[in-house]
């Protein structure tokens, strides 16, 4: 069974001037300050956002590091900084096209082992569907979306229409938390990533259930959440209890929360065996897939360590999580 990393990101080694491409030079657009052959800094206007190295854009380096970790295939998703959901649909579509085309250039050098996922202007359903169609025709194998658009969560009518279109195309959707809330408390110690990111993912899974989105969406939708579903797996019992005991406060879905556990998958970016055991216990061995968050510093390295060292997994379960479930999710033969 192939080993497939479902959660990795890419950053091109530079891209078109977004101010020129969008006709808006007043905006602080993302750009890349290349500091050396191997090092660069992601910038937003004149502010440093994140240092990166050449494994973000160099397919040869990625393949060598995949080989070292025993990874056969890797899904390359956009870095959420590039989503630009706060812009108009037309502007965001222009930006999406630029990065989606850059992703294909990297994947083309990956000897068939790098699987590109596109981004879309999710704030504009018509433009999002148009870009998804273009990308699928050009070779993208799936789409990554942010977990919300401003105050619109995944049960929003326009987002549900987009997800239904992805299901119609049999295109897998990977949901990544982004745009976490800021406050004096959350701006310390990377708390937006350590606490805000799990909260965002948890909230969006709740919205799909209580907002009735799963009741409206086709069951063949292939949906997966990054970062192990956030805090949702741990708090399913609380959610289930509230659904049954406080119907006056909860806008009920057609069924209780646990009924929908087979409608989505999560990755394994949990870093410890106890958390992985919880994922498998709650979501089932068929709905957990290997993920790493490569190549960022908070990702798992070597990739797959927690799964391979987990004492509770059978050989069959390990094979499913390392690659079998992802093969089905990606439609790979």
UniProtKB/TrEMBL annotation:
Highest taxon, organism lineage: Bacteria
Presence of keyword DNA-binding: no
Pfam family, one: Amidohydro_2
Record organism: Rothia aerolata
Subunit structure: Monomer.
GO molecular function: aminocarboxymuconate-semialdehyde decarboxylase activity; hydrolase activity; metal ion binding
EC number: 4.1.1.45
Keyword hit for Zinc: yes
Example of a GO cellular component annotation carried by this entry: cytosol
The organism's taxonomic lineage, starting at the top: Bacteria, Bacillati, Actinomycetota, Actinomycetes, Micrococcales
Pathway entry: Secondary metabolite metabolism; quinolate metabolism
Ranges of residues in domain Amidohydrolase-related: 4-331
Gene Ontology process terms (BP): secondary metabolic process
Protein name from the UniProt record: 2-amino-3-carboxymuconate-6-semialdehyde decarboxylase
Family label: Belongs to the metallo-dependent hydrolases superfamily. ACMSD family.
InterPro entries: ACMSD, Amidohydro-rel, Metal_Hydrolase
This protein's UniProt keywords: Decarboxylase, Lyase, Metal-binding, Zinc
